């Protein structure tokens, strides 16, 4: 669990999509512990988060990011409540492990709408407010698949490669506004809805879990998956003034998975 990080974001207002679970929830906690006022949206609100979110002052709202008008209303409601917006984390996402022959138009739309289109429109709606605040930080949760595409999930890989492209493009466009746009590219992260769903489909859960770990050299060396908190710490850095000159980057938090073929076990 993230520890308090001494007011690094005091006075800042942050919005996190997909913040009720996994990496998004760890990020909401981490930014709140650093002093930010945090707003979260998700398509489903998890009752189990209410006590902790209440203590940390994290406000959650139901919003399906596929609906661009809901996304716009959510961002407007944050600025109406908090008077400003400084940080946007486009984190909501779904997996799509399906070969091209099995992909339907609906699969394509779901994956691209949630993983890419919502991030683009989130940026569109947030940028005027970040500009008004004198600058700000946007962080997109991409993936290891945004660095190197994978054979088993072409649609997901396309969505994350494009999200990295969006990150670099908007970083370039909005540097003049002192708006920084960066991405994190996690490898296999445990304790997330996405990983749990992948493991639930496996015939041999322990072996599949081990395969995820073995694919990442450092995960294998540590004998564990990456944690949501380890991704959240990188997001905190990118959100903070410590990264004032960092834009258009993709920080791989993948234990070296995207470096190449790992050494034999
Ligand atoms: P998760 O399932 O725990 O979190 C995803 C969150 O997004 C959930 O709370 C979910 O309800 C929300 N969401 C999904 N569709 C939505 C919609 N239409 N509207 C609003 N919210 C929606 O899984 P996670 O691993 O924490 O995923 C967070 C991000 O991390 C995703 O973008 C994912 O692609 C990325 N990622 C995850 C891993 C991993 O191994 N878990 C690795 C690389 C990248």
Kindly list the characteristics that best describe this protein.
265 residues, Rossmann fold, seven-stranded parallel beta sheet, alpha/beta, binds nicotinamide-adenine-dinucleotide, 2 domains, 45% helix
Structural features, described:
By secondary structure, this protein is an alpha/beta fold. The protein has two domains: 13-187 and 227-253, NAD(P)-binding Rossmann-like Domain (Rossmann fold), CATH 3.40.50; 191-225, no CATH class. 45% of the residues lie in helices and 14% in strands. It has helices at residues 22-33, 50-56, 68-82, 105-132, 154-174, 193-200, 205-214, 217-222, 228-239, and strands at 13-17, 37-42, 59-62, 87-90, 136-141, 179-186, 250-253. Strands 3-2-1-4-5-6-7 form a seven-stranded parallel β-sheet, with helices on both faces. α3 (68-82) runs parallel beside α4 and α4 (105-132) packs parallel to α5. The model has no long low-confidence stretch (mean pLDDT 96). The protein binds nicotinamide-adenine-dinucleotide. Nicotinamide-adenine-dinucleotide (NAD) binds at residues 18, 20-24, 42-44, 64-66, 91-94, 114, 141, 143-144, 186, 188-189, 192-195. The site of nicotinamide-adenine-dinucleotide has 27 residues, from α1 and α6.
